[in-house]
Structures are given as C-alpha cells and as structure tokens.
C-alpha cells in the first residue's frame, strides 16, 4: 500500500550512519563496523582512507565498495579481547592519522568503543589534550563498557616516543578544512 512507501526503510534518500558514528574533527570520523546499508552515508564523507582496527577480513561487498570509491584501507588487527592494546600498533595507526594526505579518514573497529576509543585518545594526547578530557571523550563512546585496561593504556602511552618515531619531521595535521590543505613540515626538537 501507499503507507509502506512513507516508511523510513523504503526511502532511498534516508542516510543511515554506522553505529556509534561521530566526527572527531573536520575530515576525521569514528564509528563501529559499517554495514552495506551505511554505504550511501559513507559516500557523503568522500573518504580517502579507512583505519580498521579488527583482525577479521572485510566481506567482499565491503572490499568492492572501497575499491570502487578509491578508499585506501589500513588494517591493524587488534584482538577484541580485554587484553592490553599493543602500543606499536597504535603508534603505526597514529602515523597515518597525522599525515594530512590520508584525509578524510574513518577509524572503526567492531563497536566503535574500545579500540577506536584508545586510538582517538592517543591522538588527543598528541594534540596536547589534558588526560581528564581524553578520558571523558573515551567514556562518552564506551559508556558503561569502559575498561580500566584501556584507560591505563591511554594514560601511559608515551607521546614523546611517538614523536621520536616520526624521525625529525612531523606531518603537521594543520588546517585541514581551511585553505592550507598542504603539508606543513615542522622540525621536532628531540632531546
């Protein structure tokens, strides 16, 4: 009947973001695992890269979607257990995040809570956020599923070593949305 057509589910124009979707800042997004009904929404983000934090391979349908839209895939298989997240994996993912050439970027894991929350938290530390604000943002997405191991990981994550890992140059994430869409190099003074 006619009423069926007015149902949200039958309206082709309605966009459905992935679960737990949010904008971290301009050109950087986070979410849980995107499903095919979320693809039209993802198209609107004009993604250049995806950072996927689970070890499981993507279904073919996802791979075809990413390939057809020229989206580069960076997969870092962090097990979804309650174990500690490996620091070197977060460091490698951060190296992708601070390079403006990879933007716009979507970070996602299974539910967009723990693994994604830890990566975003460490990015915030790199951006000189104070720890209470880092943890507040983590809690906003993890809710009552917040994990002590995650919070300790973010608290002890060594941002200075991260900066050293980038040798003496850092691709300064700067003014992505402004007219300064070029790489800004900045010498990092190492101790």
TrEMBL record:
Cited SUPFAM superfamilies: (Phosphotyrosine protein) phosphatases II
Keyword list, A-Z: Hydrolase
GO function term, MF aspect, one: inositol-5-diphosphate-1,2,3,4,6-pentakisphosphate diphosphatase activity
One GO cellular component, as annotated: cytoplasm
InterPro entries for this protein: PFA-DSPs, Prot-tyrosine_phosphatase-like, Siw14-like, Tyr_Pase_AS, TYR_PHOSPHATASE_DUAL_dom
Pfam family, one: Y_phosphatase2
Catalyzed reactions per annotation: 6-diphospho-1D-myo-inositol pentakisphosphate + H2O = 1D-myo-inositol hexakisphosphate + phosphate + H(+); 5-diphospho-1D-myo-inositol 1,2,3,4,6-pentakisphosphate + H2O = 1D-myo-inositol hexakisphosphate + phosphate + H(+); 1,5-bis(diphospho)-1D-myo-inositol 2,3,4,6-tetrakisphosphate + H2O = 1-diphospho-1D-myo-inositol 2,3,4,5,6-pentakisphosphate + phosphate + 2 H(+); 3,5-bis(diphospho)-1D-myo-inositol 1,2,4,6-tetrakisphosphate + H2O = 3-diphospho-1D-myo-inositol 1,2,4,5,6-pentakisphosphate + phosphate + 2 H(+)
Ranges where the Tyrosine-protein phosphatase domain occurs: 20-166
Family: Belongs to the protein-tyrosine phosphatase family. Atypical dual-specificity phosphatase Siw14-like subfamily.
Protein name per Swiss-Prot or TrEMBL: diphosphoinositol-polyphosphate diphosphatase
Record organism: Opuntia streptacantha (Prickly pear cactus)
